[in-house]
Prior knowledge:
The chain is mainly alpha-helical. The chain is built from 4 helices and no strands. The longest helix has 15 residues, at about 15-30.
Amino acid sequence: MSTGSVESRAGNAELPMLRAYRLWFEHTKKCADCKDKHKAQDGCETGRERWGTYRLARTGRTP
């Protein structure tokens, strides 16, 4: 009876909110338009869309 395999599968799953934030964060590090902005709303269109996806995921809604 091994509980390690169950825990490892659960540990690999990424929460939708964290995934959305990670995608937005990675985008802002690479995008010249988003890199130096202090607000997500001031970034490029893709950055604003990813931030919107994060906000929806944070409240439990899907885009």
